[in-house]
Amino acid sequence: MTTETLMIIGSGALARSVCCGLATVGGPGLRLVVVGRDRARTDETAYLARAVAAAAGRPVTVEPWYAPDSGVEQFAEAVAHHRPAGVVVCASLQSPWERNAAPSAWTSLLAEGGFGLSLPLQSALALRAARALRTTGSDAWMVNGCFPDAVNPLLAALGLTPLCGIGNISTIAESLRASFGPDERDSVRVLAHHLHLGTVAEELEAVAFLEDERLSDVTERLAGQRTCARTRLSHVAGAAAGRLLHSLVTGAEIRAHVPGPLGLAGGYPVLVRHGAVRLDLPAGVSQEQAAQWNALWAVHDGVSVDGEQVRFPEQAASALGSRLANHAEGFPVTAIDEVIGEFGDLREKLRRDAAPSGGSAAMAGVTGRHS
């Protein structure tokens, strides 16, 4: 029996959900390696996945691996040791829950300018993982779960293109599919962005089709998702990711929805077959049109990647203002390492300041937008 190893980087809510999602569908020979910084949390994530696999009657094995520094060298060591078929990044330097757990001037900045301002910190560990794969010469594919709508195009511009992402449109699409009966769900195709996890203006709403007919009631069908506590949406993302990753490992054919496929910005319907991913757009929708929708949504989420340039749109640039004037309008992708450090320093400075008066209320209004 051939053993296929998947390396899951992270030990937080998304990593736990992905591991448990895989544990319910994995077949003989699937081995999960959970790579984390914190020993206790990494052990806990591995335990939960093992227990879920046992409860589901699935022959999946799970083991922890510790990478305290989460650096390229430690990731490369893990890749060289375990020789994974794929690496799944489920950790970043920016928690999506910070705005609720520890509001500050930093979280108010993200609320004002858009979640896209966190792109540098969201990209850091995915960038390290991609570099580790390149350093070791591994032919493993990489799937990124950290703001893949924008991080994946950034990585692609650096020659480190991930296969696709998980989360965001995956959650949105499953929410829409769940609003139909079982016989209709497989006919639903969605184009959506991270932005659509929360409520948006009518003209910015996600685009969805049943068969090839565009739906006019997307907002109504997403009401349940948008009133659900964001911490609980990881269950949906994890289940969708488990099915996707199982297909990639086994070569089985499925239709799915993923963010950042092949380095594209935003989210798309895809066909996964023999470990490859290709777009599966509704009839009458070109890739150019789909990309234009996602480009518009990206601007309203606070960041876009245009060729080799990261651009912050007006509301993000205004919010960043004099705090980081040299990057207020963006930066070249080749400067990402320097920018990660500068945004990290800015965050630490702003974290020491309380959220401005009314900041909590302002953030509550965009809670659904952050992932």
UniProtKB/TrEMBL annotation:
Low complexity bias spans: 355-365
Region (Disordered): 351-371
The protein, known as: Saccharopine dehydrogenase NADP binding domain-containing protein
Species for this entry: Streptomyces sp. MMG1662
